[in-house]
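Morning run. Coffee first, then this:
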Amino acid sequence: MAEAKAKSRPAKAADPDPGFDWRRIAYFVHLSRALDTLEETELVPQRKILYQFSARGHDMAQVMLGSLLTHRRDAACGYYRSRPLLLALGVPPVEALGSNMGRAGGYSDGRDIGVVFNYPNPNGCPALPMCGGVGAQYTPTAGWAQAITYHRDVLGDEGYRGAIAVVLGGDASCATNGFWSALTIATTQQLPMLFYVEDNQYGISVPSTYQTPGGDIAANLSSFNNLEILSGDGTDPVEAARLLTEAVAYVRGGKGPALLRLTVPRLEGHSFQDTQTYKSEDFVRSEWARDPLPKLKAHLVGLGLDEAEWGSIAADAEAAVAAAREEAEARPVAAPESVTSHVFYDGEMQAFGGQWTRGYGAPRSTETPRPEGQRINMVTAIRRTLEQELEANPRMLLFGEDIGPKGGVHAVTLGLQDKFGIARVFDTSLSEEGIIGRAVGMALAGLMPVPEIQFRKYAEPALEQINDCGTMRWRTNNRFAAPMVLRMPVGFFKCGDPWHSQTNEVQFVHNPGWLVAAPSNAEDAVGLLRSALRGNDPIVFFEHRAMLDDVWARRPWPGDDYVLPFGRAKKTREGDAITIVTWGAMVPRCEAAAKDVSADVIDLRTLMPWDKEMVLESVRRTRRCLIVHEDLRTGGFGAEIAAVVADEAFLDLDAPVARVTMPDIPSPHNPTLLDWAVPSVAVIRAKIDELVGF
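And here it is:
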C-alpha cells in the first residue's frame, strides 16, 4: 500500500484552456454573491429569511468543483455554506432563495432551514440531503461511494464506472466522528471518494488549531495510507483549478480516495448574526485581501475578457437574482395542515433513493402463514429469511461488526458470507455512526442495506445518523428517502448489564420516520423481517436476545411467501376480565401469569405503528388494562399506551390503567438482581389480581 504524499505546489503559469468554462464560473460566483448581498441587506433585516450563511470567499472554488461533477452517477453532499456548489450543479436561483425564505416548494416546502440543501437533479450529479449537524455529511457520502463500487462490480452496471462521491466540509468538521469514520471506510475499502475540505481557519469563533493540531488537516494526514492528499490556495484560480482537476482525476481513475484541502477566507461571520468580534481588524483585512473574486477577474482579463464583459456577467447574475426574488416572494407558505404528510411512505413515491425508485418489484407474498416442518428458533428463522431475500434481491447487502466469518455474536448471519460473498455480507470498522451513515448513502443510491448494531446500547454513537435518516423523507418533502432495515439485538439474556442488555425501544419510536418491529417468536420475526426488507421506509428490527433460542419462541416455518404487515397486533390469549398489552420477551411471561385468568393477552409485535384499535376494542370490553414491558417505567412506551387508553377509553374503565416495568435503573448484571428487576411472572400475576379485584 502506497503511503499518501502531501502536495502543496506553487501555481503554474495561466493555462488558456485548463478545462474550465471561466465565464460560466464567473457567472455563478457573481450569482452567489448577489444572493448573499440581497439576503444580508434586505431579506434578513426584513425577517423574510431567518438563517443566513454567506459563502463569500468559499464560492469560486466550489463553483469550479461543481463544474467537474459531470458523471451521471456522481453525487455530492455539502453543508450549510455549500450553495455555490448547488448553483453550479443546476439548482435554480428561485429554488435556493425560496427555500431560504421558507416558502412552498423548494428543498423542503418550508419544513427545513433553507441552508440545508438537497437536489435530486434528474440531469446529473445530485446533491444528497444535507444535515444540520456538523460532520454528518461524511459517512452517507462514503456509503454512496461504496454503492458505486457495488453497482459496478457486483451488479455489473458499467454506467457507474468513473463515478465519484464528493463530500464538502469545513476545517472544524475534521474533528468530528463522522469525518474519521468516513476516512476509515474510504481508505480501507479504497472507495472513489473525494474529501473536499474548506479551511477558513475558524469553526464559528474557535480557531482551527483547536480542531486539528497545527491547524492543517492535510499535513497531519500526510502519512495516512491509501489516501492521496492535495493542499493549496482556494482563492487562486490557477492553483485551485489545477488541484481540483488533479484530485477529481485521481479519484475518477479508480486509484482510491483523495483529500483536497483548500485554504479560503470566510469574508463574513459564521452566520448573519455573527459579528466576528473574536477576529482582529488586521486578520479581517488579511481575509479581504485574499478575496477570490478580484483574483478571478484578473485571471479572466489575462485570458482576454474585457471590463465590459465582466460587468455584463455581473449584471446578468444580478438580474437573475432579482427575477428569482420576485418569483420566490410570490410563492405562498405551504398549508399548515400539510406539514404532517410524508413522515412515512404513503403511496406517493419519493423522487430519489431506495430500491423502489430503481425498478425493484417485490416477489409475491401472502399475509396468511402456512406452517411447515418442525418448530425452529428465532435465530434460524431470521437467518433463513435473510438468506432467501438475499437470493431474491441482488440490491440487498448485510454489514456490521462481526457479522462476516464469525456470523454475528448471536450467530444470526452464520454462513451467509460464505454463500453470498464478502461484497454482500461484510464486516465493518468499529464505528456505529459509520455503519448507519454508510447505510444511508447506500440506500440513497438505490440499494437495500441491512446494517446491524451489535447491541442496543451501541447505537448511541449512531443516533445523529438514525435521526437524520428517519426525518429525511419529511424534511425534503418526499424528494429523498433512505429505506433500510436496521437489525438490533436488545434485552437481557441469562444475565444483564448496563451495556449489552438495554431495550429503550421508545428512543426509536420517538424518532420520526422509523417503523419499529419487536417480534416475540420465530413466525412473527419471519413475517415482519420479510415485510421490512421489501418495504420503502427505514425500519428498526429488534431481535430480543432472550427469545433467539427460547423454546416458547419456536414456531414452524410460516412459508416462503409470508409477510406480516406492520401495525397488526395478535391476541395470544383471549378473555374478558382484563387486557394485558405487551411485546418481546414479556409475552410468554404475561401468558404464564394469566394462565388461569380470563384475559386478552395482546402481543403488539410492532411499536411504530402500534395496533391502537385492537387495544382499545379489548379494553372497552374487559374494562381493565395492564401494560407490561422490560424497559424503564418513566417515559417507557407503556406510558404512551396508557395515555391513549385514558384519552379514548376512560369512561369504559373499571380500574386504573396499570403498568409493570423495570424500575428506573440500568440492567443489573448478577442474575439474582436481574430477576428482581425484570418483570417476573409472579409480579405480573399480582398486578393482574389487583386489577381484576379492583
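The chain has three domains: 19-336, 355-557, 572-692. Good start to the day.
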